[in-house]
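note to self — DONT lose this again. spent like an hour looking for the file last time. sequence + predicted structure for the chain T wanted, 134 res
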Amino acid sequence: GVLQFVPAETVNEAERRAGANGNIAPCPLPEQWNSMYLFDVLIHNTGRTQDRMLYDTATWQLMLTGHDVAFQTSRSRPAYLKELPITIGDCWQERLLALSRDVVRDVFRGTLDQRRRRALLARRNLLLQAAAED
């Protein structure tokens, strides 16, 4: 089972765009989206839609929902992110490097089978390779 808490005052991405809100977010929305894109590559989430991108209207913090099609066995980016440039800063690179085979095995044992764990590590390597090329 899954438990999810969503603050009372939220809007999804379509609603945010319609109202042109979010310009005062302490963390600029393009930076939040970049992190979402990076995360979606890492977990191979093919189900990202505007209604699965929620914002707390008090802080304009992005909250991601709808990960029911994540962690597939693909070793590449999801189709919607194939051509999108993603910035992988030093902090993200450190976190990706820390995501070792042993960590993935220990954290996801009983949750992801070996094929999905290997695919996760392959996508991590893909992101690290892209960071090295920049």
